[in-house]
Specification:
The chain folds into 2 domains: about 130 residues; about 150 residues, Rossmann fold (3-Layer(aba) Sandwich), CATH 3.40.50. Helices cover about 35% and strands about 15% of the residues. The strands form 2 sheets. It has a 6-stranded parallel β-sheet with strand order 7-6-5-8-9-10, with helices on both faces. The radius of gyration is 20 Å and the shape is elongated.
């Protein structure tokens, strides 16, 4: 059996789910542990059900068996004498590891942020069926529908700015904060191809963006907060014709969901500081200095 630990935010969970679907397609017995990864993360919860995604859930007993974590006295003594006999595999880098797709028994802990984990066309079709939602299934407020109409009627570009959790002390050493220069160069690149581009800004720091992106061709998207606001935002982003990404799995998936052959996708050339992330980039992406 293979168990994938679910953890992180929406985009990260989508990568983990994509690996789950890929392993299922390979005929593996696969389940998801949607509890353990959130025990020490008070800001995040399992959210795949917001897409209507379903999966086989691992039981406590199955997790314990794969990780050799029984807490009875005999098991603890045995582990001290002979070591832990665990099938746990922690992702060591952000690069694609083909051996993961060959496992039959494993407890997988990581983010698996590469489309190389789900290259099968049937898997891709399944993921699109789950993650490509009709706007009417998500949006019941005037603001969302107005933004959608604007996006569909112009040369729209989603521009993702992620700041608040990237500038705190805990994350600053890991995540690169995309600079104003990165966004300026990305905007100039898009405008060199489409002079009439309109930039729809999706962000966790709306006030900062209102101060730094000024003009009639910049729209800071502000949706009403609700249970499905995150997937409504991702859906709106995916409906844009082009994309300027932050170093975030959230905007990565928004760009992936847009399968237009004409789309431009601009990405920061350095994703994070503490690991090699070369395989998060796809052939459709244009890298720019961060």
């Amino acid at each position: 059996m293979i168990i994938i630990q679910l953890k992180g935010g929406l985009g990260n969970q989508m990568f983990q789910y994509a690996l789950y679907k890929s392993l299922k397609k390979l005929g593996k017995e696969v389940k998801i542990d949607d509890t353990t990864g959130f025990v020490n993360d008070k800001l995040r919860v399992p959210v795949l059900d917001r897409w209507g995604a379903t999966y086989d859930k691992a039981t406590d007993e199955e997790i314990i068996a794969l990780t050799d974590s029984k807490m009875d006295i005999f098991s603890r003594i045995r582990r001290k004498l002979t070591g832990r006999k665990t099938f746990r595999i922690d992702e060591e880098s952000g690069k694609f590891n083909p051996e993961i797709l060959e496992k039959d028994d494993a407890y997988l802990v990581g983010y698996w942020q590469s489309d190389k984990y789900f290259e099968n066309e049937e898997v891709i079709a399944e993921l699109r069926k789950i993650f490509e939602k009709r706007p009417q299934d998500l949006m019941n407020d005037t603001t969302s529908w107005t933004i959608l109409q604007q996006i569909e009627c112009c040369q729209s570009v989603s521009l993702h700015v992620r700041r608040t959790d990237y500038i705190d002390e805990e994350h600053a050493s890991i995540h690169n904060l995309c600079s104003e220069k990165y966004y300026k160069n990305a905007i100039d690149h898009v405008r060199s191809k489409h002079s009439d581009a309109v930039f729809f800004i999706f962000t966790d720091d709306k006030e900062w963006c209102k101060e730094h992106f000024i003009g009639p061709n910049f729209v800071v998207v502000e949706l009403e907060e609700g249970q499905k606001t995150d997937i409504a935002e991702m859906t709106l982003m995916s409906r844009c014709k082009h994309h300027i990404l932050a170093n975030s799995s959230f905007s990565w998936w928004a760009a992936w969901l847009n399968d237009s052959p004409e789309k431009l996708v601009i990405v920061p050339e350095k994703w994070i500081n503490n690991r090699d992330m070369d395989d998060i980039y796809t052939k459709r992406m244009t890298k720019m200095a961060i």
